[in-house]
Amino acid sequence: MARNTNETKIQLSLSLDGGPLDLLPPTAEFRNHESEHGISEGPPEVQMTKTHASQITASQHIWIWTGIGFLDHMLHAWAKHAGWSLRIRCRGDLAIDDHHTTEDTFLALGTAFTTALGPRTGLARFGHAYAPLDEALARAVLDISSRPFFVGDFGFKGPMMGNLNTQMIHHGLGSWAQTAGVTLHVDVLKGDNDHHRAESAFKALAVACRMACERVLGKEGEVVSTKGVL
To answer: What is the overall mean pLDDT for the chain?
Structure first.
């Protein structure tokens, strides 16, 4: 899928079940973008180049380039531990700041999640997980409810992680919840290091996503709601 605005140009491919993904199609914008960021200008095979947020295995294809290194790192962790295959590239107005690039990337990812999930029937629907990273511990609770809502408490101690404003973690996940159509609570329960706090949060979210998206044997076609709709 693609999301194009005056502020960002995004291409994204997502499989919730992992496996191989086709390369994102070439465009003039992204060829130039890759050249500007030190990746060879050329056809889409450039996506096979190993970057700081890429991992190609038999079970998963992950390749992420937003221009914001710490954001790439968090998306990589999310995809890896959720079992997703994910390709994203974004050309954003980073000359201004990181806001539009981060927000639009999460909005696009939420839309792709909804599309990849398909009918909201036969799902486990709820997912929850704790994830530690050294001294940090985070909890994520997810409901594929079609009632978008987000509550997050991260307790970051500084304003920036790399070139990502810490405020954008909260805003980005709230944006994802809106277009993904989920209710999401993420709390970092402890941690001294902001990097560890953020990464433990994304890993907990990843495991909660994997749990909530499972199809329950024997409930095929059933809507897991007393309302009869999701």
So the answer is: 92
